[in-house]
Amino acid sequence: MNRAPALLLCLIPALTTLGCDKDRTTGVDTADVDPEWPLGIESIAACRDGSYPTEGAAFASALCVTGEAYVAGVAYPTVEEAVGAASDGETVYVCPGTHAVHLAIAGVERTIEGVTGDPADVILDGGGTARILDAESSTLTLINLTLQGGKEVEDHGGAIQAVDSHLTIHCSVFSENQANDGGAIYIGGLNPAQVAIVDSVFAENRAAGQGGAVDFSSSGGGELMLQGSEFSANVSDDEAGALSIDGWEHEEVYVLTTTFSENTTEREGGAISMDSWDSGRLFVYDSAFSGNSARRSGGVALGGFAEGLEAEFIATRFDGNQSDEESSALGVNDYADPVTLALDGCTITNNVGAPAVEVSGTTTVVSADTHWGDGKTDNGEGDLTAPCGTYTTLGEGESFTCLPDGTWK
Q1: Which residues contact residue 287 at a Cβ distance below 8 angstroms, ignoring those fewer than 6 apart?
Q2: Contact present, 387 and 403 (Cβ < 8 Å)
Q3: Which residues of the chain fall short of a pLDDT of 50?
Q4: Tens of pLDDT, residues 175-214
Q5: What are the residue ranges spanned by the domains of the chain?
Q6: Quick one: three-class SS letters along the chain?
Q7: Residues 346, 374: contact at Cβ < 8 Å?
Q8: Residues 52 and 115 sit within 8 Å (Cβ to Cβ)
Q9: Angular region, 91: left φ>0, alpha ψ -120 to 50, beta rest
Q10: Distance (Å, rounded) from C-alpha 233 to C-alpha 260?
Q11: What are the backbone dihedrals phi and psi of residue 121, each rounded to the nearest 5 degrees, phi first?
Q12: Segment 149-180, tens digit of pLDDT
């Protein structure tokens, strides 16, 4: 089994208590394996700690009297001017308040940080008229900010459009942004993208197309990580109420200690839809999907035309999700070939409208110590529909393998 998840967890400070010297799924000692953090990020400061930058609160307050933002001790009248004045590697500190921002960067490396440490204090506002931030061929880091009211109804990314760029978001809030695809954030371009979203909140964003909150659609594939974040009440009128993953090349997606609640879509993937066109991997750890809804796959939809899609869910809960037609919690469509779906220590209960898990004829399902209920019909229309049969009374701690040829073992 691929060791990447265990190595990834070892490099995230919040999860070091897991005993990361060993791969939790194989027991293999990983101490002698080079730990390759996918995004090259070693650490980020604590979230919402209320602290000012290292210059001190008095210094920051003095500069904030004369401008909206500052760089290297120099205040600027607007956020846009401060970002334009910064050199690669420098941090732009944004002062408390609500700032109307419509900013474009290209070919640069920038960090934009809210000065107080609390995203509620520092708001970048699109005013409901235009996108807040455009990044092309850039490396962008956002810390302790709220981005709200971005709007691009005929284009992508209401708050941020990142093309051929690397993006890190930490301790930030995205709310009430709207776009065609990627209500809050759109990641695209021809080159592999690297994106990390840590300790952040996405609420009440909307897409007319796919990805109510985030659309990860880089043609070059790449790596996406979500950690310690919340996605709630995001809406897509097409597919993927919260997160759409829809690249042409191989994609690695890691979802760690993240919650998806009350997200909705008209088609499939109330919370997540992963439509891979090449081999891909989705790894979900200690996360929760609750109250999401869709016509198909109320929680997570997997599919596309991928050859060799792997999805692994560990210690993750699917509860109270709903669909109108198929797979109220988790579904795999008929186009993906082949697919491996692993459920390790998960809880799948109270999902309604269709069988909780429905998979195509080319899918292998492996359940290890997974709780499907107490042996009664805890999921409204049954627990599992797969090549090996239909099951309505799976119970606690179920361990089995269901193969595409219909074999149950």
Answers
A1: 255, 256, 257, 258, 259, 260, 316, 317
A2: yes
A3: 1-46, 48, 54
A4: 999 999 999 999 999 998 899 999 999 999 999 999 999 9
A5: 1-37, 93-402
A6: CCCHHHHHHHCCHHHHHHCCCECCCCCCECCCCCCCCCCCCCCCCCCCCCCCCCCCHHHHHHHHHHCCEEECCEEECCHHHHHHHCCCCCEEEECCEEEECCEEEECCEEEEEECCCCHHHEEEECCCCCCCEEEECCEEEEECCEEECCEEEEEECCCEEEECCEEEEECCEEECCEEEECCCEEEECCCCEEEEEECCEEECCEECCECCCEEECCCCCEEEEEECCEEECCEECCECCCEEECCCCCEEEEEECCEEECCEECCECCCEEEEECCCEEEEEECCEEECCEEEECCCEEEEECCCCEEEEEECCEEECCEEEEECCCEEECCCCCCEEEEEECCEEECCECCCCEECCCCEEEEEEEEECCCCCCCCCCCCEEECCEEECCCCCCEEEEECCCCCEC
A7: no
A8: yes
A9: beta
A10: 9
A11: -85, -25
A12: 999 988 999 999 999 999 999 999 999 999 99
The two structure tokens encoding residue 13: 């400070």
Place of tokens 């002062």: 95
CB 202 within 8 A of CB 172: no
Pairing of strands 91-94, 69-71: antiparallel
Cα–Cα dist 331/320, whole Å? 15
Q: Let me know: does 263 contact 242? Beta carbons within 8 Å.
A: yes
Please, are residues 296 and 325 in contact by the beta-carbon 8 Å criterion? Answer: yes
Closest CA to 189 of 215, 220, 159, 166: 220
Are the CB atoms for 355 and 379 separated by under 8 Å? yes
Structure tokens at 206: 């909307």
Distance set, CA 265 to CA 200, 204, 220, 235 (Å): 22, 13, 26, 6
To the question of pTM greater than 0.85 for the whole model, the response is yes
Those residues whose C-beta lies under 8 Å from the C-beta of residue 28, and which sit 6 or more positions away, are 3, 22
Neighbour tally for 125: CB within 10 Å: 19
Residue 270's identity, in one-letter code, is G
